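User: what does the whole thing look like in 3D?
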Amino acid sequence: MARLEFNQVDLNEDERQIYERLGPLFEQERLRMARALASGPLFGKKEFELRDRVHDLGARALEVAADERQKKGGIRRS
Amino acid sequence: MVCPHCTRDARFVERRAKWCQSLLGTIRFDALLLSLPRLPPGHVPWDETLGLGMATLTPAASEVTSIAGVQTSFAQSAEVTLQKLCGLGLSESTVERVTEAAGARLAQLQSQKATFGERMPWAWQRDARGKSCAYVGLDATGVRQQGQHASKAEGRMAYVATLYNRAASTTADGPSRTKCGF
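Assistant: Here's the predicted 3D structure for the full assembly of 260 residues, as structure tokens:
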């Protein structure tokens, strides 16, 4: 899969807001992953643990994005 | 050089890129290709250290593939289920091979009377005479079979059994006594 290289300066205001809020979340997860991956068998149970962590990170990212949109009035109750 | 897996003398052949399908997607790593006496050429010790062996699927990817493979057809599992649920892009034949290999391992363990899951004591229900009492449920269902090259074959009966403990209130003295119902 091709990976696109982005630069912070390419971000618009909305994107930057989310980017900045995601930073600490990703840093915390980075620490947890480093600790989990440094020892023990790499494949099998650890793959499931890592998958759960990545999914959790995705869920937190969606929360942040939803919160940012709500602040801007992007999500309104019907 | 020394094989990092078995610590025997080995001859370095080459460094080769290997691709592997993990639960989180395709991963690539460099593997040392070694030649060891009394082993076929192309021994890759790093595979064994990682627990991959000759497989191109990691243990977790194999596990989800086999789970999907027994739910529906191999084609449906490959093209829809695994793709949608895990993002795993596998061919129908890979799903078939991995699922059948898991089935063969399971059959071997069953023939060896292996215990699955943790061993744990059960607080068995007691009958009116105070004897511990377990219940066995058994059901059989016909499964149509297909022979070699899609030929007609005899159907087979699959048996499913359950061993259970009838629900009852448990006191500090153990499970309460109830009458067995047959």
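In plain terms: Strands of chain B lie at 11-22, 25-35, 125-126, 132-133, 135-143, 156-164, 170-171, 174-175. The first helix of chain B runs from residue 45 to 50.
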